[in-house]
Amino acid sequence: MQVIITEEAEQSLDEIINYLRENWNETVIGNFISNIRVTISRIQKFPNSFPSSKFVDAQRALVSKQTVMLFRIENNTLIVLLFWDARQNPDKINL
């Protein structure tokens, strides 16, 4: 399954990594990126096992306790739409 990461997803990921870099360390960043890779792999193997978001037209996968990855599967392609801090108001999600 091909993986496409949208510009919005890249931007939101950059913001999270910048936050981690300012407040934590490279080990935490490495673990976070590893969690993303594992999550993408799980989605590729079991794309229908992830729930739909209640707030946007997408599925969601938990990357960490604080971070949700919103995505869609279209024509055997995983489209990563956004990385979202789950502690934020979901009404602010703009896709």
Characterization of the model:
The structure is a single chain. The protein is an alpha+beta fold and 95 residues long. It has one domain: 2-Layer Sandwich (YaeB-like fold), CATH 3.30.2310.20. It contains two helices and four strands; from the N terminus they run βααβββ. Strands 1-4-3-2 form a four-stranded mixed β-sheet. A hairpin with a 4-residue loop joins strand 2 and strand 3.
- Summed up, the domain count is 1
Please write the string of helix (H) and strand (E) elements. EHHEEE
Major sheet attributes: 4 strands, mixed
CATH topology: YaeB-like fold
CATH superfamily: RelE-like
What would you call the quaternary organization? single chain
Radius of gyration using CA atoms only: 13 Å
Instruction: Return residue spans where pLDDT drops below 50 for at least 5 consecutive residues.
Output: none
Please work out how many helical segments DSSP would assign: 2
Indicate the proportion of strand residues. 25-35%
- How much helical structure, as a percent, in the residues? 25-40%
User: Which CATH architecture?
Assistant: 2-Layer Sandwich
Q: How many angstroms does the end-to-end distance come to?
A: 23 Å
Coarse shape = globular
Write down the CATH class. Alpha Beta
Mean pLDDT: 92
**How many beta-strand runs?**
4
Task: Give me the side-by-side strand order of the main sheet.
Answer: 1-4-3-2
Structural class: alpha+beta
